[in-house]
Amino acid sequence: MSINENLAQVRRRIAEAAERAGRSADEITLIAVTKTRAAKEINEAISLGVTDIGENKPQEIRDKFADVSPVRWHMIGHLQTNKIKYIIDRVCMIHSVDSIHLMDEIDKQAGKHNIVMDILIQVNISGEETKQGCAPEELPRLLEHAGELNNIRVRGLMTIAPKADSGVTNSLHFDNIRRLFVDISQKKYDNVTMECLSMGMSGDYETAIECGATMVRVGTAIFGERDYSKSAQ
Ligand SMILES: *Cc1c(COP(=O)(O)O)cnc(C)c1O
Asked: Which domain holds residue 60?
């Protein structure tokens, strides 16, 4: 299957899932996840109308940035504070913020560039031990802290559902984060709006859309299986 055919299929499935949920497909941003992919493949996807791409390693963003056509870059993977400087002026959004320390450091780096960085708080909704993300109980503390910062703004939540879980339990996780998303949007936190709910990957993006995702992060279903031996460190 070509990138062209795969993209067409993903877009059709997004539209169908949106329709099942009584939503408009326009509400859903497809983020094509381009980790391990060469600039050439990424540019092909962009020429086919992809507007948003996601990477999980700062180094890969740095390495590919000059060779990729204009597009919105999203940082979706775990971010160490000493790597923020490589991406701060290149990405439009950081999805993987799960601590006050990281929030503070992003704010500081964004301030140096005179920008306001959009961030999502990554929530570990399944309680799985290995996953990144803050516990749901920690959310209020992080959201309150955002009110003290000038160079970030919180735009929503992000989660990664456990790979091993079935579609049924993933929809439970997605429903749970959707509930948090709605609860938070009804409370008034300074500098926090709940507009973006980033959830769903190749295996579960349709379920995520039925549960309210506004951003889906899809790699394999567009580009095929990844070969990690070729990826940047
Ligand atoms: C790799 C990755 C994805 C995409 O995964 P696929 O299963 O290839 O669609 C989505 N989100 C994050 C955070 C990722 O690291």
From this structure: 3-222
